Amino acid sequence: MSQQNSSNNLFAFFAVIAVLCVGGFFIISNLPNNKENTVSSSSSSVSLASVSSVPSQSSASVSSVTSSSQTATTLYKNGSYSATSKYEQPEGYQSLTVNLKVENDAITEVSTTTAGGDRTSQRYVQLFNEGISTKVVGKKLNQISSAEVGYVNGASLTGEGFLSALKLIQQQAKS
Fold first, then answer.
1. Whether residue 147 sits in one domain with residue 83
2. Are residues 141 and 69 in the same domain?
């Protein structure tokens, strides 16, 4: 009986260690990097942290904002928002424009566009655009992470540009 209890205790010990390791890996892999993006609007400059699942340099700029009234309990103003960011890819930097519609802090519409880039890059952005709605529509604007957009329809680098633009949109839409 003592040897069976010892085996059960050993099994429980290793099960707890495995759960802690998996949980720790998940937490560490979702920590934001301490890279900085500089955001310029018409008359001021703001610095904000970029969240990324792939280490690289990225930059972003605000392009337009249209907002409407909000309710007292929301973090973000209802409206349509657009931001453009650049992200690193094997052939150089790629621009990505993200267009979102936000209602009651939730994303209700999303689309992405790109200018330039080679044919392969354009194809990955197209694949990303085809799959991004299922990943983010209906979710709260502040709850989107690299886990949702880091790999969409085979596009693994486009998510970095999306997250950079999303951070800009969050700044634009703040209540």
1. yes
2. yes
Cβ–Cβ under 8 Å, residues 114 and 96: yes
Domain assignment of residue 26, given as a range: 1-31
User: Same domain for 7 and 54?
Assistant: no
CB 79 within 8 Å of CB 64: no
In this structure, the number of other CB atoms found within 10 A of the CB of residue 141 comes to 20
Global pTM? 0.60
Q: What DSSP character marks residue 30?
A: T
Nearest Cα residue to 165 out of 175, 153, 173, 156 = 173
Do residues 7 and 52 both lie within one domain? no
pLDDT mean over 95-114: 94
The reported pLDDT for the residue numbered 161 is: 92
Q: Are 146 and 52 a contacting pair, CB within 8 Å?
A: yes
**In a 3-state reduction of DSSP, which class is residue 129?**
helix
Token reading at 19: 């759960």
Sign of CA dihedral 144, 150, 151, 157: positive
Half-sphere exposure of 155 (CA within 13 A, CB side): 28
